[in-house]
Every structure is written in structure tokens, then in C-alpha cells.
Amino acid sequence: MVEKTYDRETQDVGNVLALEHVNVTVPDPELAALFYVSGLGLTRDPYIDFGGANMWVNVGSQQFHLPKGDAQVLRGTIGVVLPDLDQCRARLARFVRRAGDRLAGTAYSCTEGEDGSLHVTCPWGNRLRAHGASDAFGGMGLGLPYVEFDVAPGTAPGVARFYDEVVGAPSSLTDIGGRPRAEVRVGRAQRLWFTETDAELAAYDGHHVAVYLSNFSKPYRALRERGLVTLETNDHEYRFQDIVEPDGGTVLATVEHEVRSMFHPMFDRELVNRDPAQNVFAYREGHDAYVGLTHGGRG
Ligand SMILES: [Fe+2]
Questions:
Q1: Potential cystine with 64: which of 29, 57, 237, 281 (Cβ 3.0-4.6 Å)?
Q2: Mean per-residue pLDDT over the chain, rounded
Q3: What's the gap in Å between 238 CA and the centre of ligand 1?
Q4: Left (φ > 0), alpha (ψ -120 to 50) or beta: where does 238 sit?
Q5: Buried b (16+ CB within 10 A) or exposed e, 22-53
Q6: What distance in angstroms lies between residue 3's CA and the mean position of ligand 1's atoms?
Q7: 233 C-alpha to center of ligand 1: Å?
């Protein structure tokens, strides 16, 4: 009898448990609400009130954080899973009609991707790639499955080594149409991608992503040794922004990471999500809340 074998490494999560939010400042909170809430169909966090100074927008178990300020543009593409892309197409068409002249001269666009995804650029230039709910991304039905950062040629192998050796996240090198990509495992089904591009990168403008770590102190010590910790926020959080070659220290990419421990009071916080299909004209009793998977479950 042949003993069945299993690839046990497919079940390893690694040290980064979750990618929780993407933070980009927006100059016009009202237009941002029209885009993220009315257009994409997401949900404003009802519990955290910033007045007009900031807005948190829930996407399943993840969030966009949108403080008011000069526009920040993430250097890459934010993956978004939505329950129904056709409904999203219709909502974005309504968003364009509602926003009207306010979109003139902005970066807003919406085009069809070759793989069935929807490529949406926010009015200030943040690129989103919207996917319909499917078995991809661990069955996630609403959420942020990945952020893909554009990085300079030749840096992807070092970025993978950094996450492996400094952060403790299993990372591998793949190839996307001839462009090397470092793939960092986050939780069960999320990913950070660092994909090389020949295009010139804009100067880093301070946008950030937030992640939760299982082992919080070991990466902290490794980052401290290299002089990379940029902010000692509090017991539960520190920040770094340079991703470096683990041995030589050469800076390979820059994006601020808000690093949180599992003791952070917002770890695994329950987020309110509405069913984006619900509306006043075709109201369905009992369908206000989104029901479905808001995190990647199945591997
Ligand atoms: Fe943040």
C-alpha cells in the first residue's frame, strides 16, 4: 500500500496574519464617499467618527482609511473582491452621473481587464483591480485579497528575502509575463505582491498599509538592528517603511507598514458590511447586511 503524502507547506501561514487596511489621504471626502461607498458599494464604518477629517470604509474584514489631505497615490494596485461585478459596473455608472462635473480633470477611469476583472482608478489615481466573488482568494466574497506594489527592476528577489528573513513571512519568487514578482503570504488567503516594473516610480508620498503579526517582537528587533523602525506608536504598534536587502541593507522598496500585534484592541474587529445590492428602489426585506465570506478561508 502506498502511503499518501501531503504538501504540508501549503498549510503554513507565516508571521503576517492579516493585511487590515490601506491608508491614502483624499482631498475631497465627499467625492471619496461617492466613489468608495456609492460607487464601489462599500460601507462607511459607523462606529468610528472623525467628523469630516477622516473616513474609514469597510471592505469585508478589511478597510480603506481615507484621511482628508493632499491626495496620496499607492504605487501599485489594490485588489478588491466584490460580491457581483456587474452590479458594480452599474453602480459606477451611477457614480459618474452623480459626480458629474466633479470628475472633470480627475484620474477616474473604469475599464475591463482581460481576466474578467474591472480596472478602476479613483479620482486621485489610486488603481484598484476589482474581482467578482469566486473560489479565488480562498473563497473571499468581499474584501481586500492583495496589494500589488510596483518595484524597481532587480529588487523582487531581495524583497522576498526581506519578508522571509526579517518579517518571518513565507515568500516566493514568481514571474508575471516576464516580470519577476515577490509573493508574500498573508494569513490564509491574502498576499502582498511586489512586482517589478520598468516604468518610473513616483516619489513615495507617505501612504501606508497595516498588517498584524503573530511574532511581534522578533521582526521588531531585526528592524531596530538595521535602524529601520520609524515610529514607536504604542505597546501594540510600530512602523517601518524601508524594505531592504537583509544582508547588505540596500533599500529595495519603500512603503510604510503599520505593524500591529494581536493584542491591538482592533485585532479581528467585527466590521459592518452592507449588501451592496440593496437600494431604495428595489428594497428587499432582510437583505440589508452582506452575508458571505469576508476573509479568505479555504486554501
Ligand atoms: Fe493606519
A1: 57
A2: 96
A3: 11
A4: beta
A5: bbbbbeebebbbbbbbbbbbbbbbeeeeeeee
A6: 48
A7: 11
Is the alpha carbon torsion for 198, 199, 200, 201 positive or negative?
A: negative
pLDDT in tens, 57-88: 999 999 999 999 999 999 999 999 999 999 99
Cα separations (Å) of 56 from 161, 213, 290? Answer: 33, 22, 17
**In one letter, which amino acid is 130?**
A
CA of 247 to the centre of ligand 1 (A): 29
Classify domain 11-208 by CATH number: 3.10.180.10
Closest CA to 255 of 149, 138, 109: 149
218 alpha carbon – ligand 1 mean position (Å): 21
Q: How far apart are CA 88 and CA 86, in angstroms?
A: 5
pLDDT tens, position by position, 5-43: 999 988 888 999 999 999 999 999 999 999 999 999 999
Decide the pairing of beta strands 146-151 and 127-132.
unpaired
- Residue tagged 486554501 (cell numbers): 299
Predicted TM-score (pTM) of this structure: 0.96
